[in-house]
Amino acid sequence: MLRIKNIIFDLGNVLYDIEIPRAHNYFKSILGERYEAVHHTHITSKFFEKFGTNEINAEQFVRNFQNAASQVVSAEEVVAGWNSILLGFPAYRLKLLKDLSKKYQLYLLSNTNSIHMDHIRKHMLEEHGIENFDALFTKAYYSHEIGLRKPNRMIYEHVLKDANLVAGESVFIDDLLENIEAAEQVGIHGIWHKPASIPLEEAIANFLKINES
Asked: What is the pairing mode between strands 105-110 and 6-9?
């Protein structure tokens, strides 16, 4: 068995706490009776996925909600509603990354978008004094920069090739099972981290204990 050398983290609900229903509730308030129809259109057209791969840019994303709203809504209000799902990055997870980085190469692989990342970088600076969020990792990979989203296996292959990683020496941690299963299909080990279950540090420790014994 190959020794684990690389740990690849998802961002939302693994390192950075999120609560998706907050955004749904916000947009219900500004879309009114149009919410269900707009939401259905967004799902069937893969609107959010396209934003996450930058097929739709931030300006287009905001304008879409402004046009659909049942009231006058500013761009700032749309952005605030979209960012309402972002709760924060607990300080103890920064310590976890620092401790793990002494032995492993750390990477980040996230389905995200430019609006969320602007907010996260601002939060990390204001709350933790971290000027360069990406510097917490050997390299960070974002769907809106790569043009690919999990669970498309091509995004995992891209990370392996770009970072020159051996799949069997790497473990990927995500809160969604489908993303873990896709990573495992290309040979990467997986840890399915369900936030309501055991703490992240315990899940990692348990996996490493089994795989490095």
From this structure: parallel
Q: Which domain holds residue 185?
A: 6-17+88-211
Residue 122 phi, psi dihedral angles, 5° rounding: -65, -45
Nearest residue to 182 via CA among 213, 149, 151? 151
**Residue pLDDT, tens place only, 11-38:** 999 999 999 999 999 988 888 888 888 8
pLDDT digits (tens, 9 = 90+) for 140-194: 999 999 999 999 999 999 999 999 999 999 999 999 999 999 999 999 999 999 8
Number of domains in the chain: 2
Cite the DSSP H helix spans in the chain.
21-31, 35-44, 47-52, 58-68, 75-83, 91-100, 114-128, 143-146, 153-163, 177-185, 200-211
Terminal Cα distance for the chain, rounded: 10
Domain assignment present for residue 1? The answer is: no
pTM for the model stands at 0.94
The Cα 170–Cα 6 span in angstroms is: 5
The DSSP output letter for 77 is H
Q: Indicate the SS3 state at residue 86.
A: strand
